[in-house]
Structures are given as structure tokens and as C-alpha cells.
Amino acid sequence: MKRLNYILIFVLMSIMTVGCATEPKNLFVLLPSPDGHTGEMLVSKQGVEKKLNTAYQATGLNKADEPLSETFVMEEQKVTQIFQPALASQPAVPVVFLLYFGSNSANLTEDSVKILPDIIAQIAKSASSDVSIIGHTDRVGNKELNLRLSTDRAKTVFEQLVKLGATPEIFEVTSHGMENPLVDTPEGIAEPKNRRVEVVVR
């Protein structure tokens, strides 16, 4: 799912004095994503690039006409202290669940049925009123039938979650048929991971 590629890096800038002579006043800091992974970014000024690829690695400058500083790693506690208002204002990262189905079927696999209570728990934990249920198929068969099948799969998950106590109004139920495979395959190829419903809890 393309949306599974949620933010891997966080780029933050501050124009405050950070209280240490060795650190520039204006900072670019690379933060890890909520799942612990760290991406990479390039900070460029006047053709000079500084690569940040380590959690809490930073660069910056004091004035607009100065070059970027050499990269350095900041303490996590200090980053949190400096950028607390910006960090606190960030929306929660959506939680994504993948549920799978048998071939040409709108019945959940046994393992996927076991995940339904986890979805209910996450909805309650995040007090969510915005949950997407998106149906998909593999690329076997024609587009029209697959769109119908993906719709049936999404409806199945919706009905099961409502039976478990979820409020119907929080859900948006859609389907993509065979158009957005999780595993890219040629048409006509059966791929179990593409026979799925994605539930996104925001």
C-alpha cells in the first residue's frame, strides 16, 4: 500500500538560540519516525550539501550569509525540549491493518479474523472518528468483477467491525478493485497479498 510509506523523516527548523555556543541558532534536525526507522535528507545551501542519515543528526547556521555547520548529533532530550511545541502539534500517525481473503472470496482468512479485535482496540485507544476501509483484489479476472469483489470485501470488514461494537458513522468504505496492488504483478497473476482490505485508523 502506497500509504504505508508514512513519514520516515521529520524535518524541523528553529530560529531560537539553543543555549550552546557550539550549536547554530537555526537548526535542521532529522528525527526518527514513530516506528523507529530513520530516513535521510540533504540540507543544501549555496551548492554545499550536508547529508543527515542518523537519528537526531543536525546541521544549521547562525546567519543567512554563513555556511552550514558540520553535522553533529543532538541529545534526544534536548531536541524534545527545543522543538516541543512543534512536536506536540503533529497529528498522530495513522495505524494501518491488512486483512486477507481467499481467492475469489469475500470471506476473511482465519488469521485476519483474529485481527478484528485489535482494530476495535486501536479505534478506542485513539478515540478515532475517521477510519477508512479499502477493498482490493489481485489481478486475476476482469476489472468490473474485481471492483465488485473488492467492494464486497470492504463491506464484509465493515459489517464485522460494527458487530464488534464500532460506530458505523466513523467509517469510510471504498474499493479499488485490482488497480492498486500491494505486490505489483502482471494481469492474470494470483497474488494472495493483493487479496486484501486495508483498514486505516486515524
Structure in words:
- The protein is an alpha+beta fold and 202 residues long.
- Helix 4 links the parallel strand 8 and strand 9.
- The strands form three sheets. The chain has a four-stranded antiparallel beta sheet, with helices on one face. The chain has a four-stranded mixed beta sheet with strand order 7-10-8-9. It has a two-stranded antiparallel ribbon with strand order 3-4.
- The protein folds into two domains: 87 residues, no CATH class; 107 residues, 60s Ribosomal Protein L30, Chain: A (2-Layer Sandwich).
- The N terminus is likely disordered.
Mean pLDDT comes to 88
The value of Rg in angstroms is 22 Å
Total beta-strand segments: 10
* Lateral strand order in the biggest sheet: 1-2-5-6
Contiguous helical run count: 4
Largest sheet entry: 4 strands, antiparallel
Separation, N- and C-terminal Cα atoms? 16 Å
Provide the CATH top-level class of the largest domain.
Alpha Beta
- Strand/helix succession: EEEEEEHEHHEHEE
Q: pLDDT below 50 for ≥5 consecutive residues: which ranges?
A: 1-21
CATH topology of the largest domain: 60s Ribosomal Protein L30, Chain: A
Task: Summarize the entry for a quick read.
The protein has 202 residues and is an alpha+beta fold.
Secondary structure layout:
Elements lengths: L9 E5 L11 E6 L9 E5 L2 E5 L4 E5 L10 E2 L2 H13 L6 E6 L9 H4 L2 H10 L5 E5 L7 H21 L7 E5 L20 E6 L1
Parallel strand pairs: 8-9
Antiparallel strand pairs: 1-2, 2-5, 3-4, 5-6, 7-10, 8-10
